[in-house]
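cron nightly-structures :: item 1 of 1
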Amino acid sequence: MSLALAHFSFLAVWICIVRHHQLRDWGVKTWQNQLILWSGILCALGTSIVGNFQDKNQKPTHLAGAFLAFILGNLYFWLQFFLSWWMKGLPQPGPHWIKSLRLSLCSLSTILIVAMIVLHARNMRSASAICEWVVAMLLFMLFGFFAVDFSSLRGCTLHLHPHLDSSLPQAPSGSPNIQMAQVL
């Protein structure tokens, strides 16, 4: 199971990064987009921690990872939902019912997280674990629903914009091929 969670964490980070760039291209303000990105990345980190530090062996670490995975994961999808609700100009790919489905899944996830915490506090570990697994599956489903949002993507290009430090020697301008041609 830990290997599956590690793979999911890796994929979740990439989904968060692609979504971040998609929202940036759609004109979402930087601070909102950064908040969403970091809550998603911390959710993925928490999922990796949960998978690598089992409850029986490292309970405090496992619980910290569970907090990141469940609470910040739920926050990530609520932020995504509210962003699409508030910013009427954002593209809404997919059928109209997808927004209602996301609202339902986010609401159910929130209710189950509260139930999970209450049941855990009352030493009802089995019932709490059931809630935990259902929430995990809901979060996996919500990540999967980004396929609808990504369906309009035709390609993805990474552009690096280096921060030039004036105290460092500058590289010659032009492409490496042009520089090589000048040397020859």
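cron nightly-structures :: done
The chain is about 70% helix and 0% strand.
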